Structure prediction request, 344 residues.
Amino acid sequence: MQTPSRLDALFDNLSEHTWLVTGGAGFIGSHIIAALLSHGQRVTCLDDLSTGRRENLDAVAQQVGEQNWSRCTFIEADIAEDGVAMEAVRGADFVSHQAALGSVPRSIEEPLETHRINVHGFALLCEAAMVHNVKRIVFASSSAVYGDGVQVPIQEADVGNPCSPYGASKIINELWARGCAYAHDGVYVGLRYFNVFGTRQRPDGPYAAVIPSWLHRMVDGKAPIIFGDGMQTRDFTPVELAVHANLLAALEPTLSSGFHPFNVAPGVQLSLLELESMMREVLGELVPDLEIEAPIFEAPRPGDIRHSHADVTRFRVLCTSEVQFRLRDALVELCKETIRQPSP
Prediction:
C-alpha cells in the first residue's frame, strides 16, 4: 500500500503542529506517531503502559531517526485519572485518541475497568478539548458498536445491539462525541475499526487478536486455535489503512462540525477457515520445510459476533480511490516480519 497523494498534499500545506496521540505506545498509536513524525509534526504521546509498550516507541524512534524522534514528548499517565487529559490536551492542535482497554473477552471479565478507561477516560478528553478549544478530535471507535444480527455489509447507520461491555463503551463514546461536537461546534470523527492487524500487535496473552495469535503459533509449527466452527467472517484491516484514516480524518477540510462515523476496513469478507488456509499457504511459501499442525477447534467465546463485513462507501470517499489494499500482500509482509523476530 502506498501513501495516497492526497494525504501528502495535505501535509505539504501544513506547517508544524502539535498532535496529542493517546495510547501512543500501543499497536495502532505507535504507527500513527511514526507517520506524524515522518511528516514533520510534533507529537505528545500519552500512555500509562498498561497495554502499550516502551518497545513500540523504541521501534518508532529507530524507524524515524533521531532528528524526527526529538519532536516527540512522552507522558506516562492514566487518561482516566483526573487532570491527566486536561494537561495533555493543553497546546495540542489535533487529537488522535487511541487509548482504550481493548478486547471483547476482557471487557466481559473486567466490565467496570473497561468503562473507567474507555468511557470515563474519553469523557475527560472531551472536556479537555472543549476547555482548550480543540476543534477536531479523531478517535478509535469499533465495529463492535454494530453487535450481531446486522445485515452485511454493515453501513454506518446500522448501529445495533452491542454484544459486550466493550461494544457498549464505544457506543457511549460516540454519543459523547455527538453531544460535544454540538456543544462547542467541533468536528468529532469516530473511526470504526474492523479487525486491525500488523506489526507491533501483541501475539501473546488471553486477549490477543486472531492474526497475531495464530501467526505466533504457526511459525513454531503449532496448531492455530479456532473458537467456533471457523465459518464466522471478518473484515481484516492492515494497520497502514487505519493510520491513513486517522490522518486524513484529522486534516480533511470538507468535514463540517458535528460527529462523523466511518467504517475503517478494506470491505473484504473472509471466513476464519479461509484466513487460516491463506496464512498456512503464505508461511509454506516463506518457510518451505515448515510443518504446521491442523487447527484446534474450541467452543465459541462469549461476545463474539458471527459475521462482520464493512460497507466502505463513505470511507472510500474520505480516503479517495488511490488507497490500494490486498489482504494477502499485507499478510505476506507481516509473516516476513514475524519470522525475522524472536518469539516474545
User: Anything to note?
Assistant: The radius of gyration is 19 Å. The chain has a mean pLDDT of 91.
